[in-house]
Amino acid sequence: MSGRGGWQGLNRRRFLAVCSAAGVGQTLLPGVLLGMAAEVESDGAGVSGAALLKITPEMIDAAAAIAGLRLTAEQKAMMLGGLSRQRDSVEVIRTLKMPNSVAPAFVFDPVPAGVKIETEPGPVRDMMRMSAAPDVSRLAAAGVAEDSDDLAFASVREWAELVKTRRVSSVALTKMYLARLRKYDPLLHFVITYTEERALAQAAAADAEIAAGRYRGPLHGIPWGAKDLLAVKGYATTWGAAGFEQQSLDEDATVVKRLDAAGAVLVAKLSMGSLAQGDLWFGGRTRNPWNPRQGSSGSSAGSASAVAAGCVGFAIGTETLGSISAPCTRCGVTGLRPTFGFVPRTGAMALSWTMDKIGPIARSVEDCALVLSAIYGPDGHDRSVRDAAFRWDAGFDWKMLRVGYLKSEFDVPAKPDGTSEGAKRDFARRVYDAKYGAAALDTLRNMGVKLVPMEMPHGCHFGDMTPLLEAEAAAAFEELTLSGRDRLLTGQKSYDWPNQFRVARFYSAVDYVQAQRARTLAMAAMEKMFADVDVMVTPSDGAQLTATNLTGHPAVIVPNGVRGDGAPLPEKTGDGDVGNVGGPGTPVSITFLGALYSDARVAAFARVYQRESAFYLMRPPLR
User: Fold this and answer.
1) What is the pLDDT of residues 98-112, one digit of tens each?
2) Fewest C-beta atoms under 10 Å: which of 30, 70, 412, 546?
3) Does the annotation count 164 as an active-site position?
4) pTM of the prediction?
């Protein structure tokens, strides 16, 4: 680390060079030199007190040049006192060392003015309508064993019937899944902490209650896994991050409490990319069960991988900008990313207070709906959560729904985006994958669905709003940057959090507010689009992923096939390479979107497609 005395020889050219090396963006507020004066040449660690230099007109010149401003000598002279006072205030706030659990005073609401959402007083969960009891006689006859794939890959709905009728015990089911987790974890790296003692006690209690006639519902006795950003009392909550391996939070997250109340059995805390980024954590890279040389994607890495490998009945994931969608796509499982403000995040790691969402990952849409039915609704702590209704009805009359599709997203690419060999190979992969989207549309039409061509709203600049996510994340983990402990994190590339947190410190408060104002316009545009359709069909990537995460709309991600032997190879084929994505024998997905808080309706439609296509029954070729 550079000594603090290095500031004494700092000149304008050196000042700009250091700023450039830090990745400072062009939207820099002139007042950013508050941070510059504190952090340049401190190797990422914060500086305070006497180590802070006096702010000079030359510093303002440097900051103004990066911000794209022109200031007169008189203006700079007037700014000096205000900037110094601002810096003093910033230094005082920093001394608070606020934990990650402290949310900002403002609360994001994705619902545009004048839009009404459906609420209902009383026990909404009692109105849930599951599908008819499945025939589980074959599963019951097979018995529970570690190598019983049919049982391991059964749905929550099937397990619920088996456990309720006492043809399979929760203890036996729990032991089977614990054994499978231990069998496949050396290959897939999806477990951070086993919760075996807790799980076996919960399973025994479930069996005793059910025997006594006290059945709690479809999750009673079903083993599940938690993304390791959910606090569980008595166990480490590592956030997947080096430096937090021993962190223990003396509380249970609201989602954990609600699943406990539903009788579900927590068997493990599953891996997540470090601080909810990607699939790389302090224990390695979580792998894709369909191709263990590939990462699982993330950041709900272990949740998707464990479900795909038949190692838990269901799992909980979170999404800020793709962290349910991406691993579900990669691993070939189903995810329900709920409307923002549906599920309380109390006791969960905060990354972005205005974008974080908690949702289920499972083998089927109905499984996800049963889980969401247990965890949604206000808890009196997370102020973003609305008292909105979630009425799961497996028999919902989907034929009355207006269904659109993002036409241009399904179009077959006409030509490569360039003349390089890499561009040509990428073009070949996109052309190959386009046939899966076309087949999904054909399936829907054959079901009698009249598809309405639609396009995403133009002029919303969704991608240009995403720095607000990074700004919130940098605030949530400010102490890592100021203390220099960000060096402990596993990923240290330009796209990893340590560097992104540093860059975000130069995103001005004014620009953050402006991005939120642009977000208001985007929310209105998306609301207008969903006034014309009830459900939107789209590939799982593309512009919609950023847009709907910013506007808070729900999404259901379902498997949509497996690439054949003739599929183009990935960009890279090395073990664990970031570019090792896709290729022969790997899954693809399709996504269904809906209006705010229409989650149950979207899920009901997605379930019909899923059962028609049957891709959710696919299993990876694990040995």
Assistant:
1) 999 999 999 999 999
2) 70
3) no
4) 0.91
